[in-house]
Write a structure and sequence with these properties.
Layout (H helix, E strand, L loop, with lengths): L2 E8 L10 E8 L2 E9 L8 H7 L12 H12 L3 E4 L2 H14 L7 E6 H8 L7 H8 L8 H17 L8 E5 L3
Parallel strand pairs: 1-4, 4-5
Antiparallel strand pairs: 1-2, 2-3, 5-6
Helix pairs in contact: 5-6
């Protein structure tokens, strides 16, 4: 495996069925080679909690592209390597709901690595929250900002790989059907 697509999404409300931002960081051959970031107009309401957490509101996304527009840009990235996220099932579930709700067909399943689950196997006895892992490794983080979160997750994955982790043992499958 030489290409990893590390992503993070922010959501506008407790339903977690739309995204208000997405960050993607590309790793090739052990190096970060590209980043992508976009606000996303979720075409739904924002909860106060999410606004406070992410700093993203209706006003912030009023001129942002909708998910189908963003998907046209990011699908080539998302289809080009192993998917990685911190607490991956959450981010993948938001992506799945967006694809379903906008009737966009993609893959029936993806192979992915979760840096939380991987970290728990490699480094027991410590917290695996993103901010705690960034503190542990000395990685800069502007938490709950999708671009910073995806970049930090990529940096964590690179630390695992540099320490000799066999990432193949941590690959899981996520279904986009039903």
């Amino acid at each position: 495996m030489s290409r990893f697509i590390v992503f993070d999404v922010e959501t506008p409300n407790y339903q977690n069925n739309r995204m208000s931002a997405i960050g993607i960081t590309i790793i090739e051959n052990g190096e970060i080679v590209d980043d992508y970031y976009s606000l996303v107009d979720p075409e739904t309401h924002f909860d106060y909690f999410n606004i406070q957490l992410t700093g993203i509101s209706e006003d912030t996304v009023k001129d942002a592209p909708t998910f189908p527009q963003v998907w046209q840009e990011i699908e080539p990235y998302m289809s080009s390597g192993m998917i990685v996220a911190h607490n991956a099932v959450f981010d993948l579930s938001v992506l799945k709901k967006c694809l379903r709700d906008y009737d966009i067909q993609w893959k029936p399943y993806v192979r992915y690595v979760c840096t939380v689950q991987t970290g728990r196997r490699l480094l027991s006895g410590i917290s695996h929250k993103l901010n705690d892992m960034c503190d542990y490794y000395g990685i800069a983080l502007d938490h709950h900002k999708a671009s910073s979160d995806s970049r930090a997750c990529a940096e964590i994955l690179l630390r695992y790989l540099a320490a000799g982790a066999d990432i193949r043992q941590h690959i899981r499958t996520y279904s986009f059907t039903k």
